[in-house]
Amino acid sequence: MGHHAERVTERTNRAVKGTTPASLAEFLRVRAATEALAAPLSAEDQTLQAAPECSPTKWHRAHTTWFFETFLLAPRGIAPLHPEWATLFNSYYVAVGPRGARTKRGMLSRPSSAEIGEYRRAVDGRVVRLLESAGDDELSEIEGVIALGLAHEEQHQELLLTDIRWALHDNPLLPAYRQLGAPPHDARASKLSFQMLEGGLREIGLSEGTEFRFDNEEPRHSVFVEPFALGRRLVTVGEWKAFADAGGYDDALLWLSDGFDWARANDVHAPMYATRDGGALVSFGLGGARELHDDEPLANVSFYEADAIARFMDARLPTEAEWEVAALTTNADPRAGNFVGDDLLSPRSAGGEGVTQLYGDAWEWTSSAYAPYPGFRTRAGAVGEYNGKFMVNQLVLRGGSCLTPRGHVRASYRNFWHPHTRFQTTGVRLARAGDR
Predict the structure, then answer these.
(1) What is d(CA 397, CA 160) in angstroms, rounded to the nearest whole number?
(2) For the chain, what percent of residues have pLDDT higher than 90?
(3) Where would I find the H helices in 246-393?
(4) Bond prior to 219 in cis (omega within 30° of 0)
(5) Which DSSP string do the residues of 139-151 spell out, in sequence order?
């Protein structure tokens, strides 16, 4: 995940205490979750690569295995099972060795999906034996790598689903990943309101501690936030229709110049995967094509579209600092949203009081450039390539989506994608100045 299963924090806390059975159970659970997501797909499905920014399902399965083999097992003298595969399944770790072209991952008919399954099982067995035999001191040394590897695999679980959705959408038959019902919708989402939040000097990010975090969430630092108002829910399909019906895609005054040029060049007039059919918006999802309810959250829009929609609605996108302050101020529960484990695999409408949908449903574009926090330092070694070198030309998203594993995100979690990205489950949260 520009990248981006449950209980990351609990997993790390258990590993810190050196409780091997719990660490082992968590490792096996996350690894099994990846295989469960791949299970509905045929061997042919698992080879598909719809676009250069996507990867085949079997590549995700192999790459996450290569990660444990390379960063956990190899430093302990355990030789790789297939040294020649390293070039195939290394993603962007230049310090580790050569890599195959990302654009040609869909050409890898071999190794087969079955062989990759055998590879996963063999590496899992080696990790299990390591965890079962390690003493407390060694467990203390490797727990950080285990936690990172599992969080990394959870990111690829979401990518596995977003990537296969694009591939299946490109099939004229529009086959479903698997049969899914429409998500429940709630008429209480009919009117958008805003909640006022106080400004001032606030702290965001995380500092060193036992809680797992990616390096881009560090260090904790002070930011000054003006008073602001945040939309109580995500922008809906019905609100997008009002934007589109008013000629929003053709009104240059609503758009950033770069975004308007992008929309014109790519003939963008609807979210990715969606088409207008009279008054209906029909979208292709993992359960196939269906008409979206007006009160469902809008998804699969670019930053450019999100920014234009916000302007049309007399609002703006929040900064990432505002988003994090809101999540902390409202005591939003990072585990309480609509995540992949709920098995809807689609955003659902919001009801209830207060600020809702901060976690799950759809990743929320912010207006903040993806940049290092003050005092950020790249971690030593090849693992330091994980996030830092991507801190340019991308925007931050917050909150997770309906395809994110529960427990993976938190208030400080920073996802990031290029502004034209739409194949991820990306939605819109509005903000306004506090004096309105």
Answers:
(1) 19
(2) 81
(3) 257-265, 303-312, 320-329
(4) yes
(5) HHHHHHHHHHHHH
H or E element, residue 182: none
CA distance to 28, 321, 377, 386, per residue, from 380 (Å): 28, 27, 9, 11
**Ranges of the chain with pLDDT below 50:** 1-19
Q: Which residue has the tokens 């009919």?
A: 190
Q: How far is the C-alpha of 160 from the C-alpha of 153, rounded, in Å? A: 10
212-241 tens-digit pLDDT: 899 999 999 999 999 999 999 999 999 999
Tell which residue, 213, 152, 234, has the closest CA to residue 413. Answer: 213
CA distance 231 to 191: 11
φ and ψ at residue 159, rounded to 5 degrees: -65, -35
Q: Which residues of 253-276 are buried (b: 16+ CB within 10 A; e: fewer)?
A: ebbeeebbebbeeeebebbbbbee
DSSP codes of every residue in 26-54: HHHHHHHHHHHHHTTS-TTGGG---STT-
Residue 302's nearest CA partner among 229, 394, 217 is: 394
Structure tokens at 212: 């797992």
pTM, to two decimals: 0.93
